[in-house]
C-alpha cells in the first residue's frame, strides 16, 4: 500500500473516531437515550457511507468501492433471507410438510397441500448447478422456464395496463357535454373542470396521439400537411420524454435531499 493511501486512510479513520465520540456525547445529553454508543456509531457510519458514495463525483476511489460493495452485499443477503422466510418458509413449507411447519413454527394448511409445489423446488435446486463448472448447462433449463414464464405473465399485464388502457384513454369526446353553442357561451369560464378546459384538453390528447402516430408512419413522405403533422408529433414526443425524464430527476433529487438532510440534521445537527 502506498504511503499516501495509508495517510488518507488514517485521517479518515481518525475523523470517523472523532465523529463517533462527539455524536455519542451529544446523544448522551438526552436522558431517554439508552444505547448512546450504538446509536452514535450507526449515525456516524451512515454518514460515512453517504459521503463515500458522493465521493465518486470527484473520481473513483477505494472508499466508494467499499460503500458500493457493502451495499450490494448487504442487499443480496437481505433479499436472500427475505426470500427464504417469505417464500420457502411462509409459502412452501405450510403446503408440503406438517413436521417442517412445526419446526419453523408456521401454521400447517392441510387443505392447501399440493405436491406440485415440489416442481419449483426442483427448478430452484437445478439453478444451483450454475455454480458447477461441468454442470452449468443444467441451470439453463430452469432459467429458461423462469424467463419464459415471467415474459408471458408480464406481457399480459402490460397489454392490459399499458396498451389497452392507453388506447381506451384516447377515445374521448371532442365536444364535452355539448348542448349547443349558446349554452357553451353562456357557461364559458376558465375553470379546470369547465367545458372549455375539458374540451381543449381532449383536443390536445386527440391531436397529440394522431400526430405522434403520423411521425411513425414511414410509407409516405413527410411533406405538406403530412409533414407538418409529423413535426408536431416530434414536439409531442419530446415534451413527453422531457416530462418523464424530469419526473425521474425529481425522484432522484428527493433522494439526494433526504441524504443531505440526514447529514446536516441527524449527523451534524446544524438544522433542526
Describe this structure in words.
This protein has about 270 residues and is an all-alpha fold. It has two domains: about 5-155, no CATH class; about 175-265, no CATH class. The protein has nine helices and no strands.
Salient structural properties:
272 residues, 9 helices, mainly alpha, 2 domains, single chain
In short:
This protein is mainly alpha-helical and 272 residues long.
What number is the mean pLDDT? Answer: 90
Ends apart, CA distance between termini = 42 Å
Given as residue ranges, the uncertain stretches (5+ residues, pLDDT < 50) are: none
Number of strands: 0
Total individual domains: 2
Structural class: mainly alpha
Report the C-alpha radius of gyration, rounded.
30 Å
**Which oligomerization state do the chains in this entry correspond to?**
single chain
Overall outline: extended
Task: List the SSEs and their pairings.
Layout: H1 3-27, H2 36-54, H3 62-96, H4 98-103, H5 118-127, H6 140-169, H7 181-186, H8 195-215, H9 224-267
Helix pairs in contact: 1-2, 2-3, 2-9, 5-6, 8-9
